[in-house]
Amino acid sequence: MASHGDWKDETICQSSGEIHAPRYFKEFEDFAEALGKAPGELILRDVLTKEMYDRYKDEKTALGVTFDKCIKGGIDKARLGEKWNVGKVGVLFGDAECVTKYPDLMHPVIVARHGNPHLPHPPPNLEGSQLMDQSIIDEKYVISTRVRTGRSISGFPLPPSISADQRKELEGIVTGALQTLTGEMSGDYYPLAGSTTYAAKPIGIDKETEERLIKDHFLFQEPDEPMLLSWRMERDWPHARGIYHNNDKTALVWVNEEDHLRIISMQQGHDIRAVFDRFAALVRAVETACKSVGRELEISPMYGNILSCPSNCGTGLRASMMIKIPLASAQPNFKQWCADRKLQARGSSGFASGAKDDGIRDVSNVDRMGKDEVTLVNEMIKGVADLIAWEKQLEAAAK
Ligand SMILES: Nc1ncnc2c1ncn2[C@@H]1O[C@H](COP(=O)(O)OP(=O)(O)OP(=O)(O)O)[C@@H](O)[C@H]1O
Predict the structure, then answer these.
(1) Fewer CB within 10 A of the terminal residue: the chain, N end or C end?
(2) pLDDT tens-digit profile of 299-316?
(3) ipTM over the 0.90 cut-off
(4) Which regions of the chain does DSSP assign to beta strands (E)?
């Protein structure tokens, strides 16, 4: 059973082969009042109707994912308040088929979340030569640069629903595929401390190594945000989760975290061209390696990549620079300034980082869908250049 404060989810999987997709609610009326009154931004509240719920409540995808499973976190947020779930969507996909099985909810949710994107989503563009000239960025302000995306492998439920056995099978497929990488990409797979599913490292890496990887911004943490608990992302932790990385830790693949795969390229400094070219090579290599073992990726002709969270679908791409901007980030209009330029600024230790303010921000593109990868990275490059120019103006004014 999962619990957090007053919240409890008593649903369990009876066997390691069972997927997680309960029928949580009986009727729309079970949650209608709380949902209707939910304050703040919540796309689920704006889109879901009784008629829609009645149409889908008894349906399941071919892999067994219920409609309730997809909306559980949004309903929890409505019942338990803003602090419970910082997400603004209220929907996650239990598998890729949810998008087409429950279209009356999923299409408007995707369109709303991505601000009415240009659809169908354009084909991928990983052509580094089309990036803007990065010399417009003053490198003195940049600590490091990172580009990540996610990928889903066909035939498996997504992390909110995947069974323990399927997670282990997926880990086996992916690690087999990653072992075929060569040259700069060649590396090893490191299962989380305590994971018993990877035969070559039967108890995973040691806790110290794991903590060091997290501290150095390479590895994800155990899900403790309530929002992730609502969707039961913590099930069977830490088994069948881990990270593949090359020797330099510049090419990394996360396995079985919030997506089947997260593919990451990162390095110190501001050389986005080098980071993006490595990212492109890693994405191509991972896709080819998966296909060579008979596995397709979940790419929808309409929405692009289907990942667990509607907010990441499309390219799944987040390109970021970790920059030191103590003056600009302290301005009252900083958040809005970033939003106006389609940028998001996170604290220096990830999405859920706490209040400690060191003046460092991880600044990235906001959009994921309706534009190709090169376009999104260029939005980040231009935005970071403008942000540093603003920081310099504030420095000059303070003298
Ligand atoms: N440019 C960067 N340089 C170094 N580390 C970075 C950079 N951008 C992000 N990181 C680090 O990557 C780790 C993961 O970040 P975070 O969880 O916020 O985002 P994500 O991996 O893109 O996924 P999600 O958006 O789903 O949370 C954190 O440790 C974060 O500080």
Answers:
(1) C
(2) 999 999 999 999 999 999
(3) yes
(4) 2-4, 7-9, 142-151, 187-191, 242-246, 251-255, 261-268, 299-300, 304-305, 318-324, 343-346, 360-365
Q: Pseudo-torsion of CA 81, 84, 88, 89, nearest 10°?
A: -100
| Rounded distance between C-alpha atoms, residue 162 and residue 248, angstroms | 32
Residue nearest to atom 10 of ligand 1 (CA): 217
How far, in Å, from the CA of 62 to the mean position of ligand 1?
34
- Kindly give the distance from the C-alpha atom of residue 220 to the centroid of ligand 1, in angstroms, as a whole number: 9
52-94: pLDDT as tens digits: 999 999 999 999 999 999 999 999 999 998 788 778 999 999 9
Predicted structure pTM score: 0.95
Q: Which residue has the tokens 């559980």?
A: 72
* Rounded CA separation 390/340 (Å): 14
Ligand 1 closest atom vs CA 220? 14
Q: 147 in helix, strand or coil? A: strand
* Residue 347 CA, closest ligand 1 atom number: 31
Ligand 1 center to 33 CA (angstroms): 36
Ligand 1 centroid from CA 87, angstroms: 17
- Residue of 210, 361, 362 with the most ligand 1 atoms within 8 Å of its CB, for mutation: 362
Give dist(CA 383, CA 238) in Å, integer. 37
What is the CA angle 197-160-96, rounded to 5?
105
Can you tell me the distance from the alpha carbon of 378 to that of 125, in angstroms, rounded to the nearest whole number? 12
Token representation of residue 327 = 């003056």
Going from the Cα of 340 to the center of ligand 1, the distance in angstroms, rounded, reads 22
In sequence order, the 6+-apart residues with CB closer than 8 A to the CB of 324 are 141, 143, 359, 360
CA distance 24 to 145: 42
Nearest residue (by CA) to ligand 1, atom 27, is 351
22 three-state secondary structure: coil
Is 321 near ligand 1, meaning CB less than 6 Å away? yes
